[in-house]
Amino acid sequence: MWALSAVGHRRLGAAGSLAVVGGGWFAGKLPVHDPWGLWVDHGSAVKAAGAALAYVGLTVLVVAWWQYGKSASTTRDTLVTLAWWTAPFLLAPPLYSADVYSYIAQGSMVVEGHDVYTVGPSALDPGGIGGDAAASVGNHWRDTPAPYGPLFLLLSAAVAWTTGGTIVPAVLALRLVALLSLALIVWSLRRLAREHGRSESRALWLGALNPLLLMHVVGGVHNDGLMIGLMLAGFVLALRGRWIAGSALVGLAVMVKSPAAVSLLFIGVLVHAAATGPRWRRWAKGLLGPGLVACAVAGGATLISGTGFGWLHTQGVAANIHTALSVTSDLGLGLGELVRLLLDVDADPVKAAVQTLGLATAAGLILVSARRAMRGAVTPAHALGLSLLLLVVLSPMVQPWYLLWGTAVVAATEQYGRLSAVLTVLSAALVYETHPMGATPPYGFVLAGLTVLLGTLAIRRTPVAPPGVLLPGRRGAANPPADEGGPAASAEPAPAVRNTA
Question: H or E segment at 45?
């Protein structure tokens, strides 16, 4: 297996994807009721067998991806591999998450005239549009208002209205949105890699072919893919001097999920660097220009959607649900329980204070990254990737696929350094944290931890890089030639900042 060619690993990964989907048909996040009778529960024994098959397939896919990263593949080769590995997921039931049912239910609520920013999916009539989706929403989210922006709710409403909220066609319609998002990510990664003198195929390997993305954006239909695609496309346009159009796209990304707003700060760095005139004018244009454009887009999207500005008040609702991957939530929970035992007071305010401190620290570090980008110590795009990763690490709620926010950027700006090695190992590990049906069993963390250990040992022994690549701290190798889609990997990124006046 280890001696397979790139084509051999492509086929191996496709077999892994097929196994994941095959198992998912019986052990995925199946709806409570499917009127079409396609995605139905076949009993605990079949479900257990399906889960085992999905885990085996996932392991095969991860190994194939890891080994494919060592091949000297061209951009075209990697795109073909992406198509092979993505195809099995097209008609699959929701995998690794029930969030897509929330999307359908919230879209149905918009169609029905409910205020999605004050009530949750439980407000829907069980026998009406979106009723089956609402019944399939995870327990934590049934009474939770929507944390998403008006643009995504408008898309969800269009899907609900077109399909009548029927489970199978609604899920497949939203998966089509996820596939279009993946296409936008691919488009953006290739151009961002070119701007930074990096290999397009390598950027696609970590940023698009990544099993974490395949499982959770394509299989799980998470809207993070749409946010990432719009954000990356907007940043690419800004790099090319079209900062107004780029900021508008980022504004649309924010109207899907709010973390995309971080990129506006780094578009501002680009605008400031290219602006002319007095110093105060350059600062004003850089600090205010992108934000004002994005605010105008966000305001317009909100008015068109008719959902109101309630999204401004629901951005923190997810923090009420504890996730074990959040360092600040875990620390806050532990300190809160300690304070409760010692002083007999409520532990929740302590946890909330630690979470707030984490976000404040993230904000400070993001500003430091922006300052470093302004001084030329790091490119604005790479600083954006680092900032998104910092935001995830210090956020009060962290899901495995949140790692993709920053990984998608770093994939095109640092390809053979320590950070990309860490992201490679974490991407391979975090796919195990979630069961195909969306639960987070204890053994998922054990499998993820074991993968981190094995991945770290493997990558220290043999880095995941094509033959002949000059790696940091290693001698005796030369950089590979340019692939057919872009320039060869270079030691330092040097994107041209174009005139944005």
Answer: helix 44-68
Q: What is the pLDDT of residues 214-251, one digit of tens each?
A: 999 999 999 999 999 999 999 999 999 999 999 999 99
> Which SS3 state, helix, strand or coil, does residue 168 take?
helix
> Whole-angstrom Cα distance, residue 39 to residue 166?
12
Residue 168 has pLDDT above 60, yes or no: yes
Residue 130: CB atoms within 10 Å: 31
Residue 457 exposure: Cα atoms within 13 Å on the Cβ side: 5
pTM of the model: 0.92
Asked if 22 and 36 touch (Cβ cutoff 8 Å), the reply is no
Cα dihedral sign for 175, 177, 179, 185? negative
Q: Which residues contact 233 (CB under 8 A, 6 or more apart)?
A: 184, 187, 188, 246, 249
Crossing angle for the helix pair 150-163 and 99-112, nearest 10 degrees? 80
Report how far apart, in Å, the C-alpha atoms of 215 and of each of 3, 85, 145, 202, 325 are.
26, 11, 26, 20, 18
DSSP assignment of 408-460 equals HHHHHH-SSSHHHHHHHHHHHHHTTSS-TTS---HHHHHHHHHHHHHHHHHHH
387 backbone dihedrals φ, ψ, rounded to 5°: -65, -40
Sequence letter at residue 175: R
What are the phi and psi torsion angles at 300 (to 5°)? -65, -45
Burial of 375 (0-12, 13-18, 19+ CB in 10 A): exposed
Stated length of the chain? 501
Phi/psi region, residue 344 (left: phi>0; alpha: psi -120 to 50; beta: rest), is left
- Check: CB of residue 289 under 8 Å from CB of residue 271: yes
Identify the burial level of 322 via C-beta atoms within 10 angstroms of its C-beta, where 0-12 means exposed, 13-18 middle and 19 or more buried: middle
Task: Please write the tens of the pLDDT for every residue from 409-462.
Answer: 999 998 788 999 999 999 999 999 999 999 999 999 999 999 999 999 999 998
Residue with tokens 């790091």: 378
At 367 the pLDDT is 96
Tokens for 364?
């400070």
**Residues 375, 23: Cα–Cα separation, whole Å:** 51
CA-based nearest residue to 6, from 340, 412, 358, 483: 483
Cα–Cα distance, 171 to 91 (Å, whole number): 9
Q: Which of 97-101, 283-287, 467-471 ranks highest by mean pLDDT? A: 97-101
Q: Tokens representing 311?
A: 């999204």
Listing DSSP states for 373-414 in one string gives: HHHTSS-HHHHHHHHHHHHHHT-SS--GGGHHHHHHHHHHH-
The secondary structure of 101-148 as a DSSP string is: HHHHHHHHHHHHT--TTTS-GGGS-TTSTTHHHHHHS-GGGTTPPP-S
